[in-house]
């Protein structure tokens, strides 16, 4: 028996039997679990003997699996007082009292209020114009399939900050970091960059399926336009206030990460679920048409994606930086079965200085993780193409449904 002292957010999740993956078929119990994840703090969670056994791995593991980018760090136990608040302060019921006590200037107060209400803000990150001008030219030759020291394909470069100083400077924008510290009252940690040369056309999703934390919600994304963006070159789309929806995982869809034969095998089903969820939620879908140098900051659970490229052949240069915050446990829900005690944790590096950041957890057992077979050479690129094809089909269905409403 593996005993874990975890927050109730990591609480029991029972299998959901559904005939199809849609929000209408997710049970009331599932919705209640999702609600409890966002609102309650701690309980003792143990793995029952009749459940699948988790794979124990050493407390410190240095290997990196490039095929899936999975990192398994060591953890250090903390008390509840040391771990800090169980959610960002702007989500709390005493928001008005806390905001009044901070004596923020009117513009910053407006940004905090908008971020709480809508889940995003658009700002000027005050970047060097030379970086905005020169970066696309410098990285253009790198858009080809590669796996090291960074991942890249024909549309994106992941973690290009490891080879390009301009990417690192944009990711470490002082204006952005200072604002995030006000939003979250923890030290922001830029840990991943994505650079795009054209629109991603990515299906709607929440980043919490890829990057999550305990306490929950201590993660965000920052999207910077490296050229003018309009409706023709595949702008970002997003759903204001969608951050108030529950944190959905594969388990809420009746799926287990451990049943995947390859990494991300279940992801198209998650995309299908989200597409129907957005249609049934009644939330407004907006697109981000901005000028070069402007940035969108979105909170962890804001649902977003990439619009279809209407004018084929056009570029859409942009950079995304994902942030965690200090003093949290970092993990990947898409590759985890939390209710079974199987957690694929993340070993992150602060982009600003290249130093590893310790992941902490409020339990004393070894880190538990899932083991997946690595895809064959070129398998990730092939899977990405398949996902993009499925996503395009769903986007067409969504567009058709929205036009008929």
Helix content: 25-40%
Main β sheet profile: 7 strands, antiparallel
Report the sheet-strand fraction: 15-25%
User: Which descriptor suits the 3D outline?
Assistant: globular
| Radius of gyration over all CA atoms, rounded | 20 Å
From the N-terminal CA to the C-terminal CA, the straight-line distance is 52 Å
Query: What structural class do the secondary elements suggest?
Result: alpha+beta
If you average the pLDDT, what whole number results? 78
**What is the total tally of β strands?**
18
Q: In order across it, which strands form the biggest sheet? A: 5-13-10-15-8-7-6
Q: Which series of helices and strands comes N to C?
A: EHEEEHHHEHEEHHEEEEHEEEEEEEH
Low-confidence stretches: 1-77, 362-369, 371-377
What is the count of helical runs? 9
Task: Give an overview in words.
This protein has helices at 28-39, 80-83, 95-102, 106-118, 129-139, 165-171, 174-184, 267-281, 379-404; strands spanning 3-7, 42-46, 64-65, 70-71, 120-123, 151-152, 156-158, 188-196, 212-214, 219-225, 236-238, 286-287, 295-299, 304-306, 318-325, 329-331, 348-350, 355-357. It is α+β, with helices and mostly antiparallel strands and 405 residues long. A seven-stranded antiparallel β-sheet has the order 5-13-10-15-8-7-6. It has a three-stranded antiparallel β-sheet with strand order 12-11-14, with no helix packed on it. Helix 5 crosses helix 6 and helix 8 runs parallel beside helix 9 (379-404). The radius of gyration is 20 Å and the shape is globular. The N and C termini lie far apart (52 Å). The relative contact order is 0.20.
């Amino acid at each position: 028996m593996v005993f874990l002292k975890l927050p109730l957010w990591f609480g029991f999740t029972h299998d959901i039997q559904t005939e199809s993956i849609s929000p209408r078929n997710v049970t009331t119990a599932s919705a209640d679990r999702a609600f409890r994840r966002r609102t309650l703090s701690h309980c003792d969670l143990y793995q029952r003997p009749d459940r699948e056994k988790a794979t124990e791995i050493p407390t410190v593991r240095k290997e990196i699996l490039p095929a899936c980018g999975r990192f398994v760090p060591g953890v250090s136990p903390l008390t509840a007082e040391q771990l800090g608040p169980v959610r960002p302060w702007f989500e709390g019921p005493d928001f008005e009292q806390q905001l009044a006590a901070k004596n923020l200037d009117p513009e910053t107060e407006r940004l905090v209020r908008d971020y709480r209400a809508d889940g995003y803000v658009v700002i000027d990150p005050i970047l060097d114009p030379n970086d905005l001008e020169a970066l696309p030219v410098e990285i253009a030759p790198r858009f080809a399939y590669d796996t090291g020291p960074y991942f890249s394909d024909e549309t994106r470069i992941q973690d290009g900050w490891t080879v390009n100083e301009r990417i690192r400077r944009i990711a470490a924008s002082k204006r952005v970091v200072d604002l995030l510290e006000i939003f979250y009252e923890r030290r922001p940690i830029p840990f991943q960059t994505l650079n795009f040369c054209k629109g991603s056309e990515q299906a709607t999703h929440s980043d919490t399926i890829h990057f999550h934390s305990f306490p929950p919600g201590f993660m965000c994304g920052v999207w910077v336009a490296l050229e003018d963006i309009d409706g023709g070159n595949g702008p970002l789309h997003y759903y204001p206030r969608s951050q108030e929806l529950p944190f959905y995982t594969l388990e809420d869809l009746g799926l287990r990460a451990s049943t995947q034969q390859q990494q991300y095998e279940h992801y198209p089903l998650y995309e299908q679920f989200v597409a129907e969820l957005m249609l049934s939620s009644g939330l407004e879908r907006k697109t981000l048409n901005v000028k070069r140098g402007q940035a969108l900051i979105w909170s962890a659970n804001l649902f977003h994606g990439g619009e279809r490229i209407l004018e084929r052949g056009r570029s859409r240069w942009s950079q995304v930086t994902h942030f965690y915050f200090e003093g949290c446990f970092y993990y990947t829900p898409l590759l985890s079965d939390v209710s079974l005690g199987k957690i694929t944790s993340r070993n992150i590096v602060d982009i600003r200085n290249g130093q590893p950041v310790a992941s902490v957890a409020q339990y004393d057992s070894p880190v538990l993780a899932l083991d997946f077979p690595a895809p064959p050479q070129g398998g990730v690129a092939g899977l990405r193409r398949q996902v993009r094809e499925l996503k395009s089909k769903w986007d067409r269905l969504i567009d058709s449904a929205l036009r008929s409403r």
